[in-house]
Amino acid sequence: MAHALDLAAVWIKQSGIGAPMTGLPWLWPMCETLHFVGLALLIGVAGLFDLRMLGFFRRVSLASVMDMRPWAALGLGINLITGVMFFVGAPDQYIHNVAWWAKVTFILIAGLNILAFELSPRTKALVERVGPGDNTPLRLKFAGGISLFSWFAVLYFGRMLPFIGNAF
Amino acid sequence: MDLLSSLEASGFATWMRESNSIWGYPMILTMHTVGLALLVGANTVLDLRLLGFAERLPLDELSRAFRIMWIGFWINAISGAALFVADATTRGTSRLFIGKLFLVLFGVVVILVIRRQVFGATPGRPRIGMTAKVLAATSLAVWVAAITAGRLMAYVYAS
Q1: Is A63 part of the contact surface with chain B (CB cutoff 8 Å)?
Q2: Which of A3, B49, B52, B89 has the most other CB atoms within 10 Å of its CB?
């Protein structure tokens, strides 16, 4: 896996597609700013429905907090795009960085959790059944717990990229 | 400027700058990001609701988001003070840093005004009018500006 990424890093550098990220002085800081705005949007909105899935905030129906979901998706989208831009801009500082691998692992865990949720008609039906005052079934508690924990782990390892590893 | 120099020379500030411990500067910087997520994240949910999204979500119940915002605010006031003293002479004289402080202050004032406007007057019966929508849009814009100022600090000092 690391070897395949080494080859990818060589290809990325030779192709020059990431050159603007380090060549244009304003582009990297602008993407970092968007990455932090996306972070607040994702954790704020996902945190709301994750907490409800865990059984907190029980006076509202689960379906009503799930209506906010597109905004979490927007935050995730902003951060996936800017994240790929950082990687393409300076692949070497990530591939051999333990914090980056931990971050990617938790993004994959959170992503699989989202897919398992979205692709299952059964969970969709469960959401509609959790009305105001209702506790949540264990299946949803797991989904909410995995999501909340994973996104904070992604934040932690992202912030640690320059300290555990040596990314800028 | 003497105050800034002595802050920066203090034992705590020196530890912040020079300790290689992961529990020093890195952990405090991480807490600052966690606080940002809690304060701006919870505030964003409320702002989006005021702007007309997720209208099935009962507005009254969102008053509980204020507690998360204040937790985030205090995490960031404390971690921010620690990050400040570590580089007090550069931060204390930086227009970018002072600008960021004003943006945060403005953001907090907007939260207080929203709480008063939307949840204050008649308990249990919040109302969303044009004022609330303008406040919500202002709130979102101010936090984006504050985050931008905070991020730029990492590049302007380049230390």
Answers
A1: yes
A2: B49
